[in-house]
Task: structure prediction
Amino acid sequence: MTKRRIVVLGSTGSIGTQTLDVVRQHGDQLEIVGLAVHGRVDELLSQAREFGVCHLAVGDPTLADDPRCDEGRALVREMATASGADDASFGVGPEAVAALATLPEADVVVNALVGEAGMRASYEALAAGKVLALANKESLVVAGDLIMPLALRPGQLMPIDSEHGAIYQCLLGEDAREVRRLWVTASGG
Result:
């Protein structure tokens, strides 16, 4: 059985860490190939070591010269050598995070980024033909008209956060033409 290869954007948040827990439980079926955080570099490096990840990104551009990022650059080279991978990457800034969403070896991109930071990654993942497991509501609220047309096949866009996941589950098997109105409250509402 071929493993599903996953990129986790926002790997130190609640959904990101839950995703990693699922991978721990199903390591025979799932593999982490990329991880991104905003600024929790120490946690990112720890996760990379645990899962043997060769592609990492830190979203906060002010950390580009942080010594921990130098450690990360060395770590991904070490991981690539140990695993026999052809390449490795460690990037800093929003572009580096979005680039992980297009990794050729990735099958699924879990977008658990906060706020507008996730919109570009959602767009890039779908444009690259990846399955997008989406917890970033802003991607759909602000840029839904750009993102939705990119979900070309059933199951390519999978909501995984509580609010839109609940809506998705309620509508499964139902005739969408019968839905006249839908109210969604803010998180915690």
Summary: Residues 67-83 form the longest helix (17 residues).
